[in-house]
Amino acid sequence: MTPAQCKTIEAAGTNAHRLASGPGGWVERLGDDVILSYKSDAARDELSAGLTKWCTDSGWQPVRVFHRFMPIKNADRVSPVLHSGDASLPLTTVVTEAGIRYGLDIGASYSHGLFLDQRLNRAKLHALKPRRVLNTFAYTCSFSLVAALAGAETLSVDLSRKSLDRGRHNLALNGVAETKHRFVAEDAAELLPQLAVRGERFDAIILDPPTFSRSKNGRRWQVEDHFEDLLSAALEVAAPKCAILLSTNCTKLDPARLERSARWCAKGKRRTADYVKLPPPVDFPPGHGSSTLWMMLR
Ligand SMILES: C[S@@+](CC[C@H](N)C(=O)[O-])C[C@H]1O[C@@H](n2cnc3c(N)ncnc32)[C@H](O)[C@@H]1O
Predict the structure, then answer these.
(1) Which of 100, 121, 139 to mutate to test the pocket of ligand 1 (most atoms within 8 A of CB)?
(2) Structural domain for 282, as ranges
(3) Which of 59, 101, 210, 269 gives 20 to 30 Å between its CA and that of 74?
(4) What's the CA-to-centroid distance between 220 and ligand 1, angstroms?
(5) Beta-strand relationship, 81-84 and 64-69
(6) Do 179 and 52 share a structural domain?
(7) Are residues 49 and 123 in the same domain?
(8) Per-residue pLDDT of the chain (298 residues; tens, 9 = 90+)
(9) Highest taxon of the source (predicted)?
(10) Between β-strands 100-105 and 273-276, what pairing exists: parallel, antiparallel or unpaired?
(11) What is the CATH number of the domain that holds 269?
């Protein structure tokens, strides 16, 4: 992204965004810091040279630069390594997006805590002002946070208790009390039918599952095989006019295939919907970022 585009994003209260994206990796600005994620040494050197030029052109200098090698297998991921800057500074930090504060952990190997490609989807959820929000695969609960700030009550579900605790911390960082917000460390696919039986209904649902997962009882989850089951279960707890965000990093599930699946599930549950695909954020060129689609039930 150009320094001018960066200024526009900053003016909107955001200091967490990509600076560059390429086939061999990407560079993220996270407040005062930068993480350069790379798939090969050649890509690292090219991105690093690009970052140096970007800093010269823009006049902005990061306090720290971290390098993170991205192995082919997610399971082999390692934490970012400090490349330049003060090693005594804490690895936890706070960034802002649209003026909302998010706590990050730069030392984490999976992700620092905020998926930057979801910026426009978070803004849409905030603008929808839903009353009751179900955030499945909630991770650090960024969607719950924006919904809470728009007045919603939320239910955040994730297998990882640690991630949900980070979600709680994100609410606290923004002065939101937990009173209207529930955090449940369960398998989302198992919890959805229980919510339906209990008669719970939601005005917005976030479905952003990982590509692969294993449930508590060892059940293997593969998004392209199970997405339709998940959406069908979500439709059972969707109130009239519910907005459902469908999102995945699985390259086999592009927005066109997501829409086909969604139409098939809607038909099976006798629901009708409009489908809205937002343009990608300016810092995510085609081929970068998740496939996402909003299913707006009628
Ligand atoms: C892609 S991240 C979700 C990102 C999140 N929507 C966001 O924008 O911040 C996937 C999350 O799903 C969680 N997860 C994996 N399998 C799960 C399951 N079966 N049920 C609930 N959560 C699960 C992981 O712990 C992880 O936090």
Answers:
(1) 139
(2) 116-297
(3) 101
(4) 14
(5) antiparallel
(6) no
(7) no
(8) 899 999 999 999 999 999 999 999 999 999 999 999 999 999 999 999 999 999 999 999 999 999 999 988 877 888 999 999 999 999 999 999 999 999 999 999 889 999 999 999 999 999 999 999 999 999 999 999 999 999 999 999 999 999 999 999 999 999 999 999 999 999 999 999 999 999 999 999 999 999 988 777 777 888 989 999 999 999 999 999 999 999 999 988 988 999 999 999 999 999 999 999 999 999 999 889 999 999 999 9
(9) Bacteria
(10) unpaired
(11) 3.40.50.150
